[in-house]
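INTERNAL TRANSFER SHEET
From: sequence group
To: structure group
Subject: Crystallin

Please process the attached sequence and return the structure record in the designated field. Keep the field labels unchanged so the import script can parse them.
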Amino acid sequence: MTGRPATTTLWRPTGPAELELVRESGWRAWPPRLPEQPIFYPVLNEDYAIKIARDWNVKHDGSGHVTRFEVDSEFLRRYPVQQAGGRTILELWVPAEELDDFNAHIVGKIQLVHTFQ
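Return from structure group:
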């Protein structure tokens, strides 16, 4: 009997433009990075994602959103957890050129869980 692979829950704070591209993908994939964005960084906890969406995205984009999604845990082993500040400021750093492969390992759909204006 084969089942669903073990997954890890990730969070992504995002602005309205990126969220629209996710919506256009059918909530299945993150859009390619812009030239000035060499890394895609999902985060490992909801509180950190909320802080970025609320405190940064709203200020710069007029709104901020938090998404939640599942990724095959075995696949994620290639990306060491990065501590980008305090103990709970944890991210994965996915090189832009690996984003298509990363997207292929998303299990289910990307879910919008918070919106801040």
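Handover comment: The beta strands are 7-14, 39-40, 64-72, 81-83, 90-92, 94-95, 106-116. The longest strand covers residues 106-116.
Transfer complete.
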